[in-house]
Structures are given as structure tokens and as C-alpha cells.
Amino acid sequence: MNRWLSAAATVAVLLGGFLTLWAGTDGGAAWTAESARRLDIAERPRDLPEAGLRDVEGRSIDLAGLERPIAVVDFIYTRCPTACVDLGSTFRDLQGELLARGWEGRVELLSLTFDHAHDGSAELAGYLARFGAAPNLWNAARFERKDDLNTVLRDLGVIVIPEPNVGFVHNTAIYLLDRGRVVGIYDFDDRPGLLQAIEWRLKTG
Asked: Least crowded by CB within 10 Å, which of 61, 103, 105, 139?
């Protein structure tokens, strides 16, 4: 009986999240806009705005001036029970691929939280530890200024909608950066396409 109640509660939470996302994206119209944005960025890469970040070690970094030429970025919050687990698993698998190919010195993974109120260095460090992040490859950070966070979310088309039952409902796109420019947006499960794009950038960059 308890198992059925637990399953029913899970379904209710997920349904509530879906309905919130549907309403927040104007009946799904925003997804069409996101598809158009992906095509636009692929054809015309976009410069990132300068935005100060604070990573898990407390170091200050600039989103538009990351250390390595190629970066793969996702947007998460550490309390997330659903979508961020998929994103974390994708980054964990991607990390293994990058290490196997010897690309860790030229590519970095960066998870950025949009939960400005709750996610600090300790929470982000715990998120990385949960997925076995390699310290020299996969980092996490929060925006130092909420205005910068909102600007980046808007410019990249990241959908983040507060939802009481799960915290936030959000999309799960992954962003490919090349020397401070957004050059591609990928679905979280399109690891082959992302790896192919990284390889092409490393060969031609």
C-alpha cells in the first residue's frame, strides 16, 4: 500500500511540474522559440556577457573568460530531484569520454546553479561529489550577482520556473562554449553529437 501511495505522490509531483512548465512556456510555444534559438546560435555564435562566478573552492572566475578554450556548461540546482540528476549523469558520462580521449587539458565541464538563494560552495561541492566529478575537469559555480544570473538565463534562453513541490521546473539543454562564445546548444542525451562538435572544434581551433 505504501509503495502505491509513494508512486502516486511521485506522479502527482511530476504532473504538477509538467503543468507548471506548460503554463510557464505559453502552452509550449517557448520550445519552438528554443529550437529557433539553437539554429540561430549554430549559424551565428554569440558572445557571452561578462559575469562573475564563485566556484566550489571560493575562487572568482569569469564566465566569458574561462581557463580552457572549450567548455561545456549546464544549469542546475542542487536540491533538484529529477532533471538535474539526468544532467549530472550526462556530465559524469561525458567526463569519462573526455578523460579517455585525453581532452581534459583542453575542455572543461561547468555546472552553474540558478538557485541563488540556497546553493553555496558547500552545496555545489556536494553535488559534484555525488556524481564523482574529477577536480581538474568538472567544476561548479554560482553567480556572484543575481542580475548577471538573470541576464545569462535570458540571453541563453534557459527556462527556469519556480514550482513549490519540486523547487524549480527547468529545461535541460547543454551549452557548448568556444573561447567565450556560445557555439551550440544540445539536448542532455545527445552526447554523441556534443562529442562530435567538441572534436571538430579541437581539430579546427
From this structure: 105
CB 108 within 8 A of CB 72: yes
Residues 31 and 128: their CA atoms lie apart, in Å, by: 29
pLDDT in tens, 119-156: 999 999 999 999 999 999 999 999 999 999 999 999 99
Query: Order of strands, edge to edge, in the sheet holding 181-186?
Result: 46-47, 181-186, 174-178, 70-76, 107-113, 138-143, 52-55, 60-62
Q: Cell match 507548471: residue?
A: 20
* Of 76, 83, 86, residue with least CA distance to 13: 83
What pLDDT was estimated at residue 32? 58
pTM exceeds 0.85, yes or no: no
SS3 at position 95: helix
**Spatial CA neighbour of 171 closest among 45, 7, 9, 20:** 20
Burial (0-12, 13-18, 19+ Cβ within 10 Å), 54? middle
Count of all residues that appear for the chain in the document:
205
Q: At what angle do helices 121-130 and 83-101 cross, to 10 degrees?
A: 70
Q: What is the 3-state secondary structure (H, E, C) of 26-87?
A: CCCHHHHHHHHHHHHHHHCCEECCCCEEEECCCCEEEHHHCCCCEEEEEEECCCCCCHHHHH
Distances (CA, A) of 69 to 10, 31, 37, 144, 176: 41, 29, 23, 23, 11
Rounded-to-integer distance, Cα 47 and Cα 41, Å = 10
Q: What is the rounded average pLDDT of the residues 37-64?
A: 91
